[in-house]
Design goal:
- The complex is a heterodimer of chains A (about 120) and B (about 130).
- Chain A is mostly helical and about 120 residues long.
- Chain A has four helices and no strands.
- In chain A, helix 1 packs antiparallel against helix 2, helix 1 packs parallel to helix 3 and helix 3 runs antiparallel to helix 4.
- Chain B has one domain.
- Helix content of chain B is about 80%, strand content about 0%.
- The chains are: A mainly alpha (about 120), B mainly alpha (about 130).
- At the A-B interface, helix 1, helix 2, helix 3 and helix 4 of A face helix 3, helix 4 and helix 6 of B.
Chain lengths: ~120, ~130
Amino acid sequence: MTPQLIHSMLLVLGASVIGSFGAVFLKFGSAKVTRNPLSFLNPQLGLGVTLYLGSSVFYFLGIRGGQLSILYPLVSLGYIWTLLWARIFFKESLTRRKLMGLGLILIGVVLVGMGAS
Amino acid sequence: MSAIAASHAQEAAAARRQSILLVFLCTISGAAGQILGKIGMTHFTPNLFAIVTNVPLIGGYALYGLNTLLMVLALRKGELSMLYPIIALTYVWVTLLSYTLLGETPNLFKNCGIALIVIGVAVLGSGGKA
């Protein structure tokens, strides 16, 4: 592993964590959205959007160096973090159906990454 | 089941379908955004004028905005743990668009990967409790 690759991996790993918190705050903020367009201007949504954009910057910088077969599986860790936060913060149930669907998706993302480089 | 409970169940199913549709649209705008971002990043220079006149990059970020808006509307009535993994459909569109627009060559890994993602999303979205 070259230092360049480790650098990219850390950026993408960071993007996955930041993005998953972005999703959590988007969910918190979405509860405050009403028919009034001004209701979009709430602090939770602001934070969610900021984290989301921040994570995309990390992501773009990370994948710029290539090596997608290693980086894509790291990106998909974001799905696992998000599932954990959904369980912790929103008390959502993790049904067998959700875990099966997510498992298939994760394998799919890893395969796409393997094919990409 | 009483009539009231039945109508509640119907409402929940309708809300669920609407959330899934919104996330579905979100993956399409996300894929278009990623392709534009990819094109924009190929002639990226770290200078403010170059960045604000980089049309694909700006377009990509505009689509990210749309993408986020759709996601928020979807999350309003849907479960994060069901909706968020559906975003992986973005990979499917990006791969297909890369084949057609960027001239990338298809291979078995990518094709199997996008097929599994589609099946996974179908499993997530198929019925069950709302």
